[in-house]
Amino acid sequence: MSGLIATTATLGGCVAEVQAAIFSLPIEEAAKATGVDVLRDRYGLDGTGITIGFISDSFATAKTFDTSGNLDTYATNIANGYLPSGVNVLKDFFEPYAIDEGRAIAQLIHAVAPRAKLVFHTGVGGVDVFGQSIQALAAAGADIIVDDVAYDPAIDQEPPNGLINQAIDRVFNQGIAYFTEAGNDFPYPIYGHSNNSNAVSVGAVYYGNAPSYSSRKDGTVIEQGQLEPFSSEGNPDSLKPDVVAPDGLAISFDLGGGSRSDIDPGFFSFFGTSASAPYTAAVAALLLQADPSATPTEIYNALRDTADSPVSGFDSRLGFGLIRGDKAIAALGVPKPIPEPATTLAMLCVGVIVAGLSLKRTQRKSQTIAKPSERLTLVHSSFTRLPPNT
């Protein structure tokens, strides 16, 4: 079950309640690495009042199975607490090769932001369908939109003024934050709408529940916290990807080549920037819940400016670094409502302890093109290619 567990601290006659997060999927390593545990434990954030639109292949049309070989469906996901009821499916995809990657994305979003409302639209069918899906999600009330759909770089059909980029620009100017995958195509560079300056492009760093995993392709061992070798590189003189975020995250069913059951017993591990992008979008939902007046530009810059990186300056593989929700919320100026564990117990009796934030949504500020912080120097990296079939 997702949600919060309350524990108490007592001093004299005072009792203060502190919340401890429970995630619907085992994502604790990723949550700790990105400060999501702090957002849930200390701020009481769970996505309440935020609607997240997501775009992928299909949501509930594929025949999928769990690690025990049992049929895994949207209904079983609800029963097991992996998904909420009432996901708004505007348009699904029904071809035989659908794999319900949209449902896998939804599970990750729900694990991070369990109270957020979810709206889905397929992005398969051409650039016109993709563009329409973005606009449809905006019309359905999405505050944040994320996709994991990309064309083959050899036949990229999305120029800067293409239908997808036009739709992203339009929703951005309406005050809707947009997140997309950087791609799993290294050494090929990021292409298509993932280069849009009004969207956040997300690369992948391994943060599964095992200390490391071995690539099935060539036996390369990827350690916890290591950049995925397949995560795409930005183009020369660009500031893409914007950030990196966890992949190798647990989901309940088999995505075929995009997941593995031998890393996290009882779950499949979801690899690639298709996992890291929705994870980041869900973190953004928590930030927006905390500061409903924050514009997409402010959220983008909070994530970029507070990201952790092992290199000095901007890196063409790591972007500005690994997202840190606990630092990003401070950059937005949101005060911490619950004392840190090291704070003296006397402070637990001072003021009002807030277990959750319920803030009235205010009108979003007008938007301009997002400009990443210029305090970092552009650095291009060189890594050995590892195909995404891990």
From TrEMBL:
<dbReference type="GO" id="GO:0004252">
    <property type="term" value="F:serine-type endopeptidase activity"/>
</dbReference>
<feature type="domain" description="Peptidase S8/S53">
    <location>
        <begin position="109"/>
        <end position="321"/>
    </location>
</feature>
<dbReference type="Pfam" id="PF00082">
    <property type="entry name" value="Peptidase_S8"/>
</dbReference>
<dbReference type="InterPro" id="IPR050131">
    <property type="entry name" value="Peptidase_S8_subtilisin-like"/>
</dbReference>
<keyword id="KW-0378">Hydrolase</keyword>
<feature type="domain" description="Ice-binding protein C-terminal">
    <location>
        <begin position="337"/>
        <end position="360"/>
    </location>
</feature>
<dbReference type="InterPro" id="IPR000209">
    <property type="entry name" value="Peptidase_S8/S53_dom"/>
</dbReference>
<dbReference type="GO" id="GO:0006508">
    <property type="term" value="P:proteolysis"/>
</dbReference>
<dbReference type="InterPro" id="IPR023828">
    <property type="entry name" value="Peptidase_S8_Ser-AS"/>
</dbReference>
<dbReference type="Pfam" id="PF07589">
    <property type="entry name" value="PEP-CTERM"/>
</dbReference>
<dbReference type="InterPro" id="IPR036852">
    <property type="entry name" value="Peptidase_S8/S53_dom_sf"/>
</dbReference>
<keyword id="KW-0645">Protease</keyword>
<keyword id="KW-0720">Serine protease</keyword>
<dbReference type="InterPro" id="IPR013424">
    <property type="entry name" value="Ice-binding_C"/>
</dbReference>
<feature type="transmembrane region" description="Helical">
    <location>
        <begin position="342"/>
        <end position="359"/>
    </location>
</feature>
<keyword id="KW-1133">Transmembrane helix</keyword>
<comment type="similarity">
    <text>Belongs to the peptidase S8 family.</text>
</comment>
<dbReference type="InterPro" id="IPR034075">
    <property type="entry name" value="Glr3161-like_dom"/>
</dbReference>
<protein>
    <submittedName>
        <fullName>S8 family serine peptidase</fullName>
    </submittedName>
</protein>
<keyword id="KW-0472">Membrane</keyword>
<keyword id="KW-0812">Transmembrane</keyword>
